[in-house]
Structures are given as C-alpha cells and as structure tokens.
Design a protein that fits this description.
Chains A, B, C, D, E, F: Homohexamer; trimer of dimers. Chains A, B, C, D, E, F: It is an enzyme of class 4 (lyase). Chains A, B, C, D, E, F: This is Cyclic pyranopterin monophosphate synthase. Chains A, B, C, D, E, F: Keywords: Lyase, Molybdenum cofactor biosynthesis. Six copies of one chain form a homohexamer. By secondary structure, the first copy, chain A, is of the alpha+beta class. Chain A has a single domain, classed as Molybdopterin cofactor biosynthesis C (MoaC) domain (Alpha-Beta Plaits). Helices cover 31% and strands 29% of the residues of chain A. Chain A is built from four helices and five strands. Chain A has a five-stranded antiparallel sheet with strand order 2-3-1-4-5. In chain A, a hairpin with a 4-residue loop joins strand 2 and strand 3. The relative contact order of chain A is 0.26. Chains in contact: A-B, A-C, A-D, A-F, B-D, B-E, B-F, C-D, C-E, C-F, D-E, E-F. Chains E and F meet through helix 1, helix 2, helix 4 and strand 4 of E and helix 1, helix 2, helix 4 and strand 4 of F. Strand 4 of chain E pairs antiparallel with strand 4 of chain F.
Chain lengths: 157, 157, 157, 157, 157, 157
C-alpha cells in the first residue's frame, strides 16, 4: 500500500467504503501502560487486597468507550461490537499498570481502533483517579497486539 | 496527600465535591507522541506540502474530544471549556509526530484530564488514518506538561 | 444458571460474548407506573382533551432513550433496533399513568434492557414535566412483561 | 401552582426560562429499590464478601448518567454538576437493593431530575447484570427524598 | 474584521478563546422554512385540527439539538443554555412550514449557532416524518434573525 | 401513500417497523448551499490556495454528524453506515458554497436522513467559522438529490 486509505487523491478526509465487504468474525487486542510513582503503586496495592474500585472504574470506562469509538474518531464506521474486555494488571516491580483490551465483531471492518480506544480511556480513567497522588504519571506504549479476521487474515505485533 | 481523592474510605468510586470551590482561570497543557515507520512519515510529509487533511482531521477530533471528557471519564465534572488548542508537529528525524494540547477554563476544577483526552483522541485519529500503511504504530509519552490556576497554583512537569 | 453472566470468575464486569450467536427476530415489552396527586391528574386530563404535549414529549424521550441504551448501561451491546413503541395511558381512577414500551430487533441478543430504558426515561420525562405541581410523585413497578426470540424462546412475566 | 410549568398556554413543550435566576448551591437526593429473588440476593451477597463488581458497575453507570440528564430529558437544562454520589445497600431481609443518589450544583436550577436519573440508571444496570438469574425483577419506589437550595428552600419527602 | 476568527494565521481550525470574556445575558433567534407539496400540507392541516404529533416531535427534537450544539459543531464552546424555544407555523398558502427558534444564555459567548441548530434539526425531523408523502421537500432560508447581548450589542437581520 | 408513516392512527409519533425488511445496499445523496458575502468568499478563496482548514473542518463535522443521525432525529433507526462523503465546492460567481453528501448502507432502511444531516451540519459548521465576517449568511436549498436501493428502487430529484 503506497497511499493512506483515509485520504483521497485531493488530500481530503475519506471514510473507507466497506459497503461490499462481507461480514465475518473479527478480533483485535491492544495494550497500554500507565507508569506511576511508588506512592500511587502502594495505594493501588492496598486497594487490590481490599475492595478498591480503582481497577473496576477504569474497566467500565474502557468498555463504554469502545462502544463510542465511531463517535470519537471521525473516519471510523459505526459497529455493533459483540464483546469488549478490558483487563488491568498491577506490575509493581516495574511501577506500572498494564492494561489490555479485546474487541470482537461479526461485521465488515476491523476493530483495532475500538480496542485502542478502550485501552486509552481505561488508562485516562486510571490517571484521573491517581492524579492527586501522582500528577507526573505517564501513559506509554499504546499499540495493537493482534488482529484477526477479514481479508488480510491474522496480524501479530 | 496519602489517599486517592477519587476513592472514598469504603473503597468506592467518588466524585470530588467542588461545590464550594471558587471559580477562577485554569489552564493545562499535555503532550503525546505517535511513532510511525518511514513510509508513513513520508506520506505525511508529502501531504504537508500539498493540502492533506491528516493533521487537520486529528486536530478537529482532539478538540471535539476535549469537550466530551466528562462523558468519557466517569468521575470528571462537566465543564464549560473556554478554549481548546491541539497542535501536531512532524518530527521526521525521530520518526514521530508530536501532539500538544491546551485547555482553558474559568471554573471550579482543573482541566488536565481535558488536555490529556484531547491529545489522546488526536493521536488515536492519526493512528486510524495511518494504520493501513503502518499497523505497528505506537502512541507514547502521554503526560501533563503544565497546569495553572486553582488553589495549588502552577505545576510544571 | 447459578452465576451472573455479567461478572466473571474473578468478580469483574463482563460483557457477554455474542459473537457466535445467530441473528433472529427478538422483541421485549416493559411497563412502569407514575403515581401522581389529583391536581396533576386533573391537569393531564385537561391536556388530553385539548392538545397538550405532556404524553407526546414523554413518548419521544422514551423512544430516543431506547436507542441510547448501550451508551447508558455499561455491559449492554450496541444494537440496531428496528422498532420502538412507547405508550402512555392515564388511569385516573388509580391516580397514575401507565407507560408501556415495545422494542424489536433482528439481531444477536435480547432487547429487554432497551424496553426498560424506554419506559424509564419516558417516566422520568413525565416526572420532570409534572414536578412543579406534584414534587412527591413516585415511579413504580418497572418490569419486563414479555420477551420473545432467541434461544430461550418466549418469556412471560 | 395551577399549571404545568413545562407546557405553555398552547399546550406545547416549554423549557422554563432560568436566565434571570441567581446561581446558588442546590442539592437533591433520590432513592429507588430493586426487588430480586433469593438466588440473585445470594449471588450478590457472595460477591460482596469477595470483590464482585456488581455494585461498583451500577454506581459508575449512575454517576455517568447524572451527567447526561439534559441529554435524555428533553426540557432539562444543561448543568455543571459539582458532585454526584450513588450508594447501593443490600437489604437481604426484604430481598431488595436500596439505591440512593445525591447531586449537587452551584447553579440556576434544581437537580432532582439528575438525582432521579442517577438512581434510575444505577437500578437498570443492576437489573442488566442480574437478569440472567432473575428475569422477573422489579424496580420500585423511585422518588425524590429531599431538595434544598433555590427560591423554594428545602423540600422533604 | 478582515480575518476568520476560527482559523489561525497558519490556516488551522481555531476555537476562539473566551476565557476572559465577561458573562452576560445573550439571546439569538433563527428561522428556517420547510417547503412541502399540497398532499403533505393537507395531512399536516388535518393533524393540526386533531392531535397529530408532527409539530410536537419536531419541537422536541429542535430543543434537544440546541443542547448538543457544541457536540456537533467542532469549534463551538459548551454552553449552559437557560432557555430554548422552537415554534412551528403552517403557512398553507405558501405551501410551507416556518420554524423559528430562540436560545438564551447567561454566559461568555453568543448563542446563534444554538438557535440555528435547533431550527435545523426541527426542520430535519419534520422532513423525516413527511418524506414518505413528499420525498422532494426542500429546507430553505436558514438564517439568524436577531442576536443580543455581548460586546457587539444587538444585531438584527 | 395517503398517510404519514411516522404518525399512527391516533396521531402519535411512530417509528416505522423495519424488523422484517431485507438488508440490501442503499445510497442517498443530498445537497445544500451556503450563501456568503463577498468578503467571506474572498477569505475562503485565499484559504483554498493556501492551507485553510475551513472546508476540512466542515467536511469532518458533516461526516461525524451523519453517524449521529438516529441520535438527533427521534424516529430514525440506528444504522451502520458503510460510507459517508461530504464535498464542498466554492462557487464564487454565485457567492455561495455548494455542499454535497453521500451516504451508503447495507441495511434495512434508506439513508436520506443521514445524507441530509451530514450536509446540514457541514453547512452549520461553515456558518460558524464565517459568521464573524458575515453574520447574515443564509443556508438554502437543502434537499435529497438521489436515493437508491430498497423496495422502491431509484428516486431522482
């Protein structure tokens, strides 16, 4: 591919035409990291062993955001996601939280933007809840891990 | 601060009460990087010199997303932003695009989540438009650069 | 069924995976009651005989809300509803308004949450319009009346 | 008051004009009950003692819905809520969950519709998560408990 | 004024900075016409004398759309409208419906875009409801009629 | 057709039931004009030859609005658009901008409301960006140009 599919010959924004593509099962997985200071890590650890909502709220926000992807990203098609998963794992040794997401669809186009949006908004929500303790957090390494279904088959990072 | 402001004593999600805070001018700036391969960098460069909408579409998506922050992040307050700026700069030598955002408010609470959301969604939109050429892009280094206004004064990364 | 389908083994929020379910015709009906004082009942009665918008506005709000169910209820799937009906009936003798809703879908999952959301928001809208006259209203008896289609066949309250 | 404020003399939908009302602190509290069968009650109890997200997800959904009230209820004014709280309490003896909500605003109009919407959507979300175990649940007794601020002062149910 | 306020020196989209503008009462009125064939006019007339919801549904859609203007128009500021009115008048002799809208705000920027959006969406809704009878309708003459408040004072079309 | 499909026998708002309609390829095209004064025309012309975002921002706003049609127009069905195009052409001689839109769907109902909404919001966005230079603009001639697919075949204005 030597051109951007989302920009036409005149250099204008272009939504790809998927009218004639066939519907089939598609999946995408994404990941992102939130880097926190040790005080924030400590508070999350404490919550984990009790009943803190920190991870729960981030998970819900990520799932809801996946469903709103086409409302946020101008050239994304509206899709009827059949499954969204968001997982958060505290990696205390590396002073970070790893967030992974999975989106599934029985439809005409890939769902990697949905998986990336879910991971992004879960990370932003975690940031929001921890920012009073660590305003210098960083969100890093957002990328697609795997993509299956569709004409191009499986893509693995 | 030794506790998360967004989690109450029972470990439950908690929207901070800003009812009695005074309204004043607040600003926040954020940044994020999108790392692309050389083919994508080349296509963006070409667009820059012509009239490609790549940066324009990302900018609009970022500005619109800032206005929807409280709709995406569960514990964010609804705010009447008075100004949103999103800038994209191609740093071809480092094979990346730098995105910076600025949000302003005359209100009761800080706007760093709005600035982060604007930068995030601008980056996701850039990703969407370039993914056919480079599916292995990475979005990195999302963080707050500066925050002014409010009781705590100026905070600089 | 001995477990919640929407909570996984780790106790986390879980969107049910409907990727492999077949698409077929599904319907759900719900009802709810709004209990009002005699002054509000009288004003609605008068409007009925003239051209009051009280019931009309509630109906429109309920129909629009049905379409936004997956945006409000975190683990609901986005669906392409093919029909939404909201009906309001003044039952003056019982000093109440009965609201019923019907949702239809040709799709992969049931639509009872859509029917409940339509009835709920229609009731809230009626409440909003009558609250200056009767601030002590109560919304009661929201439930699913019937559900058809899908693997489990017909369910009747 | 002998007329509906939300319907004009011609019987048409009417958004109350609050342009000239002064801004002051306002609060409203609402409650609602979800009635469940003993199997659902048992599963929630078990989750409570572990780390089930059932109440957490409902709380987040209720908080987010409060912020979208003016988007759902046609004649509600857009408001900048300064605080939203949603609480869920299992009342196992009565086979029900009690949900209470609190909304606060420094603004020109009351927030009882916001409190009612928060409680409603939290109840609908609880329903969604429990419906596989108990499809015959009922949502009952949605009402305003208390309202303070504004010209009319304190109102108590 | 010799430049567009919404485009900066580099030709990029620019949200006007209203941070330092003072808050005051502002109003805007807009109008639009929907031109219909005689069959559609006849059906609306019949409804008018009975209890047709044609105008009622359009009015509600227009009011709700006004509240979502900043979500639709990229460079509009989020605003807390204090009043929205939408009126529809059948002008059977000219085979058209005239729609007028009024928006009010106690805030930092004008509300003509909100008035135009209200009128627009009311007209689109009328079109939707009449299109089976007259697919060749035309929506004409959308413009601002009057604008008051703010530094520039009163503007009259 | 001698009745409005969107109003039932009782004169109430009625969403057409498309449950049993078959899915097939459908398209609709719409157009609208924005009439501007010569100063605004001049500034747009200048931008065209440089890199002004005026048309780009309007195009993005129109595309995004098409995807939100069922959220704005009460009786429209939610649809999964497979393609949206918005084009803007400066017709300097006639002192106007012509906006055309195209929507495509593989689904159960026509997409003319989506095409009209895209054109409308693109026009409103253009208005917003030019209003400081020409507050007396007019948006004219919004109509469907062509509609294909579905039982009724091709319709041409």
């Amino acid at each position: 591919m030597t051109e951007f599919s989302h920009i036409n010959a005149a250099g204008e924004a272009n939504m790809v035409d998927v009218s004639s593509k066939s519907s089939n099962l598609r999946e995408a997985r994404a990941e992102v990291y939130v880097l926190l200071n040790s005080q924030a890590i400590g508070l999350i650890q404490r919550g984990d062993h009790h009943k803190g909502d920190i991870f729960g709220v981030s998970r819900v926000a990520g799932i809801m955001a996946a469903k709103r992807t086409s409302d946020l990203i101008p050239l994304c098609h509206p899709l009827m996601l059949t499954k969204v998963t968001v997982d958060l794992e505290l990696q205390a040794d590396q002073q970070r939280v790893r967030i992974t997401s999975l989106c599934k669809l029985d439809g005409k186009t890939g769902v990697e933007m949905e998986a990336l949006t879910a991971a992004s908004v879960a990370a932003l929500t975690l940031f929001d809840m921890c920012k009073a303790v660590d305003p210098a957090m960083r969100i890093d390494g957002l990328r697609v891990l795997e993509k299956t279904g569709g004409k191009s088959g499986r893509w693995l990072a």
